[in-house]
């Protein structure tokens, strides 16, 4: 009982509890009365009986499932290779996955316009090789939407699989091979079942992400590839029907929940470790007596295989690995690299390769008051979000501590913003914030960004806190230090590296966050994602490519600074250990 009413723990956990209640739970609950107000029955009947909306629902589920399955197939080998990589190879593969993950969805989607357009990279390459006589209609198709969604989802799936695959002992494959299993049977019989938890988490995360996507279908699809989130955003932007948008949001959340439950059940069936079944009872009706063990001493001859595939298999696999890593790396990085030559193009429209190079688009951006004001607005919002998120994450980590009885439940609530489709949260935030005058204000966007960024920062800070030796705090307390001094002199310095990484993540997430920024900003407050959204929708000139290239460069610089800080700290710790091992 004393733990439940520990006033220090209540004081530390109160800020994040208030934030999640006011800025996350209430906006989601606000969708319900809006959706069921007035003629709610007719509204939902219209959604589930109208051929237009039923087609949009089927298209949303189909594209989401397609993107999730392709992402899982492509990401699993990459996550396995990354989990076994060391040194420079691990750093390079990590950057290949990390850079696209921390790059704005708008930037990545715009890059596909430069690749798949009629005068884009793919058509230009095929025309130059003489393989086609006229450009292929690659844009405004389901293929383009799925490609963009898979490109955005691969890092999420890899991160979900990585932690699980890293704990698998690689010798299980060797053991399977020595027992006669071929490579396919060894993988699907050993590694895949052991990684089922990571697969389940990755599938759920990617499916929820694709279900809530509206940027890719808005830019790369057509009317036949409309998705539910796209319709919700259109209803909110035009202000045509808030109640219908809320009903569509509930429909999206309900369908996503049902499909996620179905996927979890299917994945559970395929894992013998999750459902091992009841052990068979031993037979008691067998007659006891002497057992003939002479057969155990007889040599067993293994039949020679009809075809010896070992040597060709090794040769093929020796090439498959490098080719696969090269293709996946090119798929992840090429859309980002294409932005730079397009950004320096002298043409008025998107052409690849550019007919000439010029700095005109960068000059126009830097001399434009609208773009400069949007950049300063995003910077202010990002800094404020970073500071608030770090304070909340630090207080939460200290409040939960190491021995909190309800830690798992509390963490599930803290991380709940990651499990709700972003467009559903943005819809609820729009409906609730509009009632209190927070729409089109920096404070409203800061609140939304803090809610969405807090889980990322908390995960990093919590992992760092768990690695701190609790004996250090007890030693300081035994020497007379009060709790605040223990935190200031022991806990905070050791927690600082994790907080630094969390600060970088919070800043990048706020600076690049698109969905909430598009929903909550309009005329008075325009962030860079909002300006980029409007620029790509109404003017696909290289100006948007220049902005995207600048955002990508800033992201890479932040990642580089973070890596240098981590490497510098590791080097100092290594030098300190070499100079005085006993002190360390």
TrEMBL record:
Its main location: membrane. The chain crosses the membrane at residues 61-83, 90-116, 136-165, 202-221, 242-270, 323-344, 381-400, 412-433, 445-466, 486-508, 545-567. SUPFAM superfamilies: MetI-like. It comes from Roseovarius indicus. This is Putrescine transport system permease protein PotH. The lineage of its organism: Bacteria, Pseudomonadati, Pseudomonadota, Alphaproteobacteria, Rhodobacterales. One of its GO terms (biological process) is transmembrane transport. Keywords: Cell membrane, Membrane, Transmembrane, Transmembrane helix, Transport. Pfam families: BPD_transp_1. PANTHER family: ABC TRANSPORTER PERMEASE PROTEIN (PTHR42929:SF5), INNER MEMBRANE ABC TRANSPORTER PERMEASE PROTEIN YDCU-RELATED-RELATED (PTHR42929). It is found in: Cell membrane. One of its GO terms (cellular component) is plasma membrane. Belongs to the binding-protein-dependent transport system permease family. CysTW subfamily. The gene is potH_7. InterPro entries: MetI-like, MetI-like_sf.
């Amino acid at each position: 009982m004393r733990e439940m009413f520990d006033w220090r723990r209540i004081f530390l956990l109160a800020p994040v509890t208030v934030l999640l209640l006011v800025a996350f739970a209430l906006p989601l609950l606000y969708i319900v009365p809006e959706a069921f107000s007035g003629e709610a029955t007719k509204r939902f009947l219209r959604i589930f009986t109208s051929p237009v909306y039923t087609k949009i629902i089927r298209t949303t589920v189909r594209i989401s499932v397609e993107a999730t399955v392709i992402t899982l197939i492509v990401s699993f080998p990459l996550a396995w290779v990354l989990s076994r990589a060391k040194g420079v190879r691990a750093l390079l593969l990590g950057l290949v996955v990390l850079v696209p993950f921390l790059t704005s969805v708008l930037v990545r989607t715009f890059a596909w316009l430069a690749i798949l357009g009629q005068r884009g990279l793919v058509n230009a390459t095929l025309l130059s090789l003489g393989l086609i006589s006229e450009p292929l209609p690659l844009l405004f198709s389901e293929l383009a939407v799925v490609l963009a969604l898979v490109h955005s989802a691969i890092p999420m799936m890899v991160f979900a699989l990585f932690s699980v695959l890293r704990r698998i002992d690689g010798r299980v494959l060797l053991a399977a091979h020595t027992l006669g299993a071929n490579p396919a049977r060894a993988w699907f019989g050993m590694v895949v079942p052991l990684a089922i938890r990571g697969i389940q988490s990755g599938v759920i995360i990617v499916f929820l992400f694709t279900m809530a996507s509206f940027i890719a279908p808005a830019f790369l699809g057509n009317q036949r590839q409309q998705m539910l989130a796209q319709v919700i955003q259109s209803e909110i932007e035009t202000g045509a029907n808030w109640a219908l948008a809320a009903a569509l949001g509930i429909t999206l959340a309900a369908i996503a929940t049902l499909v996620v439950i179905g996927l979890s059940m299917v994945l559970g069936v395929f894992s013998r470790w999750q459902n091992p079944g009841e052990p068979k009872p031993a037979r008691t009706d067998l007659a006891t007596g002497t057992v003939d063990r002479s057969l155990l001493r007889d040599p067993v001859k293994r039949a020679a295989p009809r075809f010896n595939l070992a040597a060709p298999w090794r040769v093929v696999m020796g090439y498959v690995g490098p080719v696969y890593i090269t293709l996946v790396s090119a798929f992840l990085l090429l859309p980002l690299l294409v932005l730079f030559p397009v950004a320096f193009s002298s043409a008025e429209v998107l052409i690849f390769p550019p007919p000439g190079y010029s700095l005109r688009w960068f000059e126009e951006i830097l001399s434009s008051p609208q773009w400069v004001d949007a950049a300063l607005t995003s910077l202010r919002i990002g800094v404020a979000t970073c500071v608030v998120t770090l304070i909340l994450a630090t207080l939460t980590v200290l409040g939960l501590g190491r021995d909190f009885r309800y830690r798992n439940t509390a963490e599930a609530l803290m991380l709940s913003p990651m499990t709700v489709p972003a467009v559903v949260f943005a819809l609820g935030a729009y409906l609730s914030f509009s009632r209190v005058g927070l729409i089109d204000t920096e404070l409203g966007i800061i609140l939304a960004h803090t809610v969405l960024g807090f889980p990322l920062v908390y995960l990093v800070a919590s992992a760092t806190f768990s690695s701190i030796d609790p004996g250090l705090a007890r030693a300081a307390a035994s020497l007379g230090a009060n709790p605040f001094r223990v935190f200031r002199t022991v806990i905070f310095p050791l927690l600082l590296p994790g907080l630094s990484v969390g600060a970088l993540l919070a800043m990048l997430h706020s600076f690049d966050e698109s969905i909430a920024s598009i929903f909550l900003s309009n005329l008075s407050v325009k962030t860079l994602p909002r300006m980029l959204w409007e620029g790509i929708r109404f003017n696909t000139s290289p100006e948007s490519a220049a902005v995207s290239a600048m955002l990508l460069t800033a992201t890479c610089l932040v990642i580089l600074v973070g890596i240098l800080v981590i490497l510098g700290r590791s080097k100092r710790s290594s030098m300190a250990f070499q100079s005085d091992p006993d002190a360390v």
